[in-house]
Amino acid sequence: MFNKNFKNMFKKKESKQEARSDSESLKPKSKNINSHDKKIISADKDEFISVIKKESNNPSDLKTKFITEDFTLFYIENLVDSRVLNKHILPVVLNNPSSSPSELKFQLQIPEVNMTEKLDLAILELFSGTALIHKNGHPTVLLAKINTRDSRSLSAPENESQVIGSQVGFNESLSTNESLVRRYIRTPDMYIEKLSVGKISNTTVSILYLKSIASEEMVQTLRQRITDLKIDALLDSSFLAEMIDDNSLSPFPQMLLTERPDRFCDGLINGKLGILVDGSSMAIVCPHSFIEFFQSREDQNLRWPIASFLRLLRFGAVFLSVYLTPLYVAALTFHYEVIPQSLLVPLSESRALVPFPPIIEALLLELIIELLREAGARLPTKVGQTIGIVGGIVIGTAAVQAGITSNILIIIVALSALASFTTPSYMMGNVIRAIRFPIIILAGFWGFYGIMLGFCFLLVHLIKQSSLGTPYTAPFYPPRLVDWRDSIIRLPLTLTNLRPTSSRAKKRKKFESEPINPEKS
Asked: Does the pLDDT at position 438 exceed 90?
């Protein structure tokens, strides 16, 4: 009985295997051959040429050159340096027609030459400015990296200008940006990890950090967030910063975008991580707290009383930019008693011909200011400056004469707009200007209670945020009194020798508290 059951089971197993083999034999063999070809490189010259043209969709700028009877060269015309190609590759191959690919690799006098058996890697390198050299009879291909180095010349940063300090900014070339960082930090301790992001764009992203200072946990977290991205294309660093933020729904940026190499390197020295994206002139520094967005690199170059005064001025300007117009709307709508008696007469005279309530008047004028700013930013430089100045004067004067708005509100709105431009970070400046509108609406409906409601909502929202896992409101919440010495004010440099606690640096001290002792010297 046992033998009979065993034979039946064996027969069923054999019939299943036969059915599986029959079904596999019915499948087209060309599909299996193609999938096999995609994995490895064919040794046959004609077959490899047809596969390269098929996998690259045979673009018009794909050039195929038969150097010798066995050697074939492939490259994209607009991506390779023709001078290097004609001087350092073609003569060497012509003079060594019997060399194998492994021998030719050491004969080519160019910095970067690799070998591969993977077809997908060869196709990717082809569209990155690499020349492919294939020899008939060898299932490998040489990758000669001779891509062009054309880039915009170095110039002063346009969005983060300063009087004292470096006057050079990043450009769109990744290699140039990495060399700029190397010039500031000349140590083998600085690591550069390269990743590829985007299924279509295959954009190169570099993570920079100081190995002996940066937190390994933060490096791993940042690396994991970038490698986990499933996107088709990455065209700018601002897109990457939003994708890897702790909370992409928040209007507040949690990572700093800067075009200044000195500010970027200052973050690395403080134990932070830096990101450079190929094709973008803006670098990313993380983690970054809310307070640090209002600090300028120039603060480190000024004497500490002046730097502290300028920081206090910026924070005061942020408060004026957000709350000055809402206070005006709330006072005129609900709280006349807070207005000084000597100011009531000028206010009543200026609003005598205005047919709108204060909230509509304020929103209308704020919207006009934002339209002028956006138009000035999009137009050419000379035309934009003219539109911003002349448009503001003409529209403001005409609005007062037409009775649409009052003189005092024009002064308040202009002061609020001017105060918003004191923020060193462009991304944070946009947020400051945007949050004025909901607070104006709250002030128009509920007065000072609405302003306090908006303030509490913003405070709770900021406390809940984090930047790469670190508190966004540090060093004030959670309180870290040691870091207060370089926050809203800046104490003398000898007292700011510790790296921020939020960066979780392995080494807290940047230098001794008294690097020079006058008594001993």
From this structure: yes
